[in-house]
């Protein structure tokens, strides 16, 4: 199996330049180098972000969208420019461990049936810009089920794939419809469609990425996020992934947390939804 892979990233104007630079550095300095790094500029960027992109101009394939259209649209467009069958996702504020991509490529080489592969992420809070500093700021780990049958059950309740460190087959993703507009749930929606298309999933038990979670409890609250939850779980029901009672129960539980005051929601995330 070919070891070539493309990296797919997206950035928009509200993101932090120094975090973007750290993310790009972590993916450039992998022990197994990417064939290409496709970075989608989702609308106009600030001068500070442009300076970061200029610094890496020889290493990036830049795809520029005229206006901000959201993550689903940006990733769908970026996927068109990825030439490799294997696409590695990387967010613009996370830090990949140096051997992340090598581990994933070696795994799918020995398990050629796999179409989607993710792993454990270490969640950290702070301004770390290196692996060493991020390690000192870890607050929790996000574990997900490892084999396809467990993932197929888990997906009925929670997202079974850590999107910030996923690697997927381009052809299989496109066959399932690729990334689509599904506000805040673009990745979860894709996994559902790929699973229904008989794709095979797996997750590594290893920690392969440090995920920056600064103020995540705030981003996952409010009316807009509650509407996104309602829309996605109605979609799950219509696709016959879950029954009506489960749809009502899961939606009620998630929206209740979403509409809690920020500090209460933070406590729920810290005490119940994270693995310390």
UniProtKB/TrEMBL annotation:
<comment type="similarity">
    <text>Belongs to the glycosyltransferase 2 family.</text>
</comment>
<dbReference type="Pfam" id="PF00535">
    <property type="entry name" value="Glycos_transf_2"/>
</dbReference>
<dbReference type="InterPro" id="IPR050834">
    <property type="entry name" value="Glycosyltransf_2"/>
</dbReference>
<keyword id="KW-0328">Glycosyltransferase</keyword>
<dbReference type="InterPro" id="IPR029044">
    <property type="entry name" value="Nucleotide-diphossugar_trans"/>
</dbReference>
<keyword id="KW-0808">Transferase</keyword>
<dbReference type="InterPro" id="IPR001173">
    <property type="entry name" value="Glyco_trans_2-like"/>
</dbReference>
<dbReference type="GO" id="GO:0016757">
    <property type="term" value="F:glycosyltransferase activity"/>
</dbReference>
<protein>
    <submittedName>
        <fullName>Glycosyltransferase</fullName>
        <ecNumber>2.4.-.-</ecNumber>
    </submittedName>
</protein>
<feature type="domain" description="Glycosyltransferase 2-like">
    <location>
        <begin position="6"/>
        <end position="172"/>
    </location>
</feature>
């Amino acid at each position: 199996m070919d070891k070539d892979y493309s990296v797919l990233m997206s950035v928009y104007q509200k993101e932090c330049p120094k975090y973007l630079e750290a993310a790009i550095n972590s993916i450039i300095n992998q022990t197994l180098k990417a064939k290409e790094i496709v970075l989608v500029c989702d609308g106009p960027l600030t001068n500070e972000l442009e300076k970061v992109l200029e610094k890496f101009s020889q290493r990036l394939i830049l795809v520029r969208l005229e206006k901000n259209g959201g993550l689903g649209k940006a990733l769908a467009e970026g996927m068109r420019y990825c030439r490799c069958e294997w696409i590695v996702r990387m967010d613009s504020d996370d830090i990949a461990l140096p051997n992340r991509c090598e581990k994933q490529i070696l795994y799918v080489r020995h398990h050629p049936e796999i179409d989607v592969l993710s792993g454990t992420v270490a969640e950290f809070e702070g301004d770390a810009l290196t692996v060493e500093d991020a390690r000192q700021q870890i607050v929790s780990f996000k574990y997900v089920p490892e084999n396809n049958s467990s993932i197929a059950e888990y997906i009925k309740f929670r997202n079974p794939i850590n999107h910030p460190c996923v690697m997927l087959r381009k052809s299989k993703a496109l066959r399932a419809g690729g990334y689509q507009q599904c506000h805040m749930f673009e990745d979860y929606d894709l996994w559902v469609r790929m699973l229904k298309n008989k794709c095979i999933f797996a997750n590594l038990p290893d920690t392969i990425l440090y995920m920056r979670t600064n103020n995540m409890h705030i981003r996952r609250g409010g009316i807009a996020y509650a509407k996104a939850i309602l829309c996605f779980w109605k979609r799950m029901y219509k696709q016959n992934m879950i029954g009506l009672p489960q749809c009502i129960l899961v939606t009620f539980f998630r929206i209740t947390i979403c509409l809690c005051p920020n500090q209460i929601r933070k406590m729920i995330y810290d005490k119940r939804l994270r693995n310390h």
